[in-house]
Specification:
The protein is α+β, with helices and mostly antiparallel strands and 84 residues long. The chain has three helices and four strands; from the N terminus they run βαβααββ. Strands 1-2-4-3 form a four-stranded mixed β-sheet, covered by helices on one side. A hairpin with a 7-residue loop joins strand 3 and strand 4. It is globular. The chain starts with a strand and ends with a strand. It comes from Planomonospora alba. It holds the Pfam family Smr.
Length: 84
């Protein structure tokens, strides 16, 4: 199962971005999804940096297996999960 989160509608609301990211991570764990696609968009790159900082937090990092940046579209990230 693959989940998708597009951050375009809330790009300028920091608190909502963190809530949306936490929500999609929790949903992926609950539904045992193997992949989450996060779309911060291309823009200046600030939103992508914010997403990467969020994902790099110790308690969040423990929840997923790895992150890939899309080589063809720098406005997209993939977070992969391994469920036991």
């Amino acid at each position: 199962m693959k989940l998708k989160l597009d951050l375009h509608p809330i790009y300028n609301r920091g608190g909502e971005i963190d809530k949306a990211l936490r929500g999609i991570i929790d949903e992926a764990i609950r539904k045992r999804a193997t992949e989450v696609e996060i779309i911060p968009g291309k823009g200046s790159g600030q939103l992508k940096k914010k997403v990467l900082r969020f994902l790099d937090q110790k308690e969040i990092k423990a929840l997923y297996h790895r992150i890939d940046k899309d080589s063809k579209n720098h406005g997209r990230l993939f977070v992969y999960f391994r469920h036991k």
